[in-house]
Structures are given as C-alpha cells and as structure tokens.
Design a protein that fits this description.
Radius of gyration: 18 Å
Strand order of the largest sheet: 1-2-7-8-9-11-10
Helix content: 10-25%
Order of helices and strands: EEEHEHEHHEEEHEEEHEE
Largest sheet: 7 strands, mixed
Structural class: alpha/beta
CATH class: Alpha Beta
CATH architecture: 4-Layer Sandwich
Number of helices: 6
Distance between the termini: 27 Å
Number of strands: 13
Strand content: 25-35%
CATH topology: Purple Acid Phosphatase, chain A, domain 2
Length: about 260
C-alpha cells in the first residue's frame, strides 16, 4: 500500500508531500524501493529521442516498486515570446502537453512528485503554467519551484528528498557542481535532485548531526541527471556545448535503512 499526504501547500502547489509505503516483505511487499529521476524530456523538440524514452519507460515498468520523480522541462514549449525558435518544435505547446501526458500515463500511480522547469514556465505569459496543466491531468503533486518529499519505508522515517529543476547556464563541470552544491545547502534532505543543464553529476557531502547526545555524520548526495535529447544537429551542438547522453538518477532504499545511488 502506498499513501500520499500533502503536508504543505501554497495555493494549488504542493511544496511538501509525504508518501507511506507500508507493505512488509513477508506479505509480498518490496525488498527494496527505487526512486527514479526523470527530467528534461522536452517532448515537442525535434531533438527529443522518443525511442530511448520508450525503452527507458519499459524498463521502469518492468519492476513493481519503481517510483518516479519528475524534474521538469517535460515539454519544450517554444513560443514567439521565448528564446527558443518555435520552428525547432514539432507542435504547439498545448499539443505537447497532450503528448507528454500520453507518454507518462502508463507511469501514473508511480509518480511521487513533479517540479516544473523553465520550459514549462515559457507558457505563463500565454495561457499559464503548462506544468500545472500536466500535473492536473496526471493527478500528481506539483510545484513550479522546489518540492520536498518524505518517503516512509521500512526504517526510513523518513527518507528526505529535495527536488528542483535547476538553474543557470553553467558550461564547465565546476560551475555545474557549484549550482548543485548550493542547492544541497538548503533544507535537511538526504538526496538533492536537479536537471536543467543536460549533464550528469554525482556529488557527495557529509553533514554533522546531533543524535542521542552524540555527533554523527549524515551522508548526503546531490545528483544531476541529463536529458532525453539528441546532441548532433541540435542547438547544443551548434553552440558547442558539452555533449551528453541520457543518464538518470536511481536511488535504491532498503527496509533496513540503508540506501544507494546509481545512474542509468
């Protein structure tokens, strides 16, 4: 059984959400739970690699207790008012919303959180935040900024996640790491997830924590996932940005309270 509780809302946006996953292994429950970061699909862009996403979605669905955290820029949504060229899109933003909802519909029931990106916000001057529309159609908790998630599973009481799309226009690995590390200084989470810069980074750190009269080191990690966009023949290649391939974060939670991170 998985149960959602919205703990902190600002108008229609969910800023803090709790999930309880309570079925013990002895009753057919999970021996582990996986949290998969999906970000920067940019559906509607000519560079969107649909076959790769469909392959990734099939892998996600191949195991029951894989859950999804949506990191923003799910559609490209270029308009006359945005920096991007609408001619690099395959359809208008409203049809991109329909398309991405259809692509994500098989994952409905597994999506634990969703933060909008700068591409969703492109439509705000026209018909409003397209991320809010996507979230409403998928019935998932949405924040256009930061979203905090508390995952209660086994001895994780809770496992804390900070989700944000990311920001800036960093080109070097060091500058990208600075953006990620700055985000890791916020909140009291264990894992911090970003996208936006279409690159992959894994950044470990430790935080001093008082517990039961002793000082312990709490392990924390910041993860940047890349995108589902092709590189060659796109604006990224024309601008000589660093090439990257699809790498999404995967956090594995064990009932014992242990956890690990991989990239796929």
């Amino acid at each position: 059984m998985i149960q959602r509780t919205d703990l902190h809302r600002v108008e229609q946006e969910v800023k803090l959400v709790r999930w309880d996953i309570e079925v013990p292994p002895s009753r057919g429950g999970p021996r582990s739970v996986e949290l998969i970061h999906l970000t920067d699909l940019q559906v509607g862009a000519r560079a969107f690699n649909r076959p790769r996403f469909l392959e990734y979605r099939e892998w996600l669905l191949s195991k029951r207790y894989r859950y999804v955290l949506l990191g923003g820029d799910l559609i490209d949504s270029a308009t006359k008012l945005s920096k991007a060229n609408p001619y690099e899109n395959t359809s208008e933003p409203i049809w991109q919303v329909k398309e991405v909802v259809e692509l994500l519909r098989p994952l409905q029931g597994r999506i634990l959180g969703y933060v909008g990106g700068n591409h969703e916000r492109r439509t705000i001057p026209t018909f409003g935040d397209s991320g809010a529309l996507i979230a409403e159609r998928l019935e998932v908790p949405y924040s256009r900024g930061v979203q905090l998630l508390d995952i209660h599973f086994g001895l994780h009481r809770p496992f804390k996640v900070s989700l944000w799309h990311g920001g800036g226009a960093a080109r070097t690995k060091g500058a990208k790491a600075q953006m990620l590390h700055r985000f890791m200084s916020q909140a009291d989470s264990t894992v911090y997830l970003v996208g936006h810069l279409h690159d992959s980074l894994l950044l470990w750190d430790w935080r001093e924590e008082r517990r039961a009269g002793k000082i312990r080191l709490q392990k924390i990690v910041g993860i940047m996932s890349s995108s589902f966009l092709d590189y060659w023949g796109t604006y990224a290649e024309v601008a000589a940005m660093s090439p990257s391939d699809t790498m999404m974060a995967r956090i594995v939670l064990e009932p014992s309270g242990h956890w690990e991170v991989t990239m796929r």
